[in-house]
Structures are given as structure tokens and as C-alpha cells.
Amino acid sequence: MQAKKGAAKKPESEAQLQLGQRVRRLREQRGWLQEGFAHEAGLGRSFAGAIERGEKDVRISTLIKLARSLGVSLAQLLKGIGS
């Protein structure tokens, strides 16, 4: 079955949802809007939004970009996710 165009996509996994929530929380703690954060991380705004909603399974290179732009280590970004 195909998803309707423009319909919200469900998170693929609990780990993706947890990662998205962590990224959003860290971004908001820094007072950043999604667009500025996405630019800082070298990502498109819609892609960053999809990560925050848990809709994207991201590569390690993207995780590194996220961690660097948020000023945390990769270990800090991923701590407790998937447990």
C-alpha cells in the first residue's frame, strides 16, 4: 500500500524516534530554529525535520554532522538510544 502524497510518515523504528527527539531537544535548548540548525549541519531543512520526526534512517556521516553542529560528541548524541 502506498502512502498518500503529503501524508505524515510514521517513524521507522523506536531508535529513529528517540534520535529525532534528542536532536530536537538539543536544538531547542540552544534556541535554534530548524532552518538555521539545518544550515549549520549542512542539511536541508525538510531533511532535518524528517530526522526530528523519526522518519529518516540516517548514515553515520549525518550523525557526525548532527553531533558537531549541536556541540556534542557522537556518544552523547546516541547515549541510551535503542535501549
Provide structural commentary.
By secondary structure, this protein is mainly α. The protein contains five helices and no strands. It has helices at residues 14-29, 34-41, 45-52, 60-70, 74-78. The protein starts with 13 loop residues before the first helix and ends in a 5-residue tail after the last helix.
User: Gyration radius, to the nearest Å?
Assistant: 13 Å
**What string, H for helix and E for strand, traces the elements in order?**
HHHHH
CATH architecture group name:
Orthogonal Bundle
What is the assigned CATH homologous superfamily?
lambda repressor-like DNA-binding domains
Which properties best describe this structure?
434 Repressor (Amino-terminal Domain), 83 residues, 58% helix, mainly alpha
Helix-strand layout with pairing:
Elements: H1 14-29, H2 34-41, H3 45-52, H4 60-70, H5 74-78
Helix pairs in contact: 2-3
Outline of the structure:
The protein has 83 residues and is an all-alpha fold. The protein contains five helices and no strands.
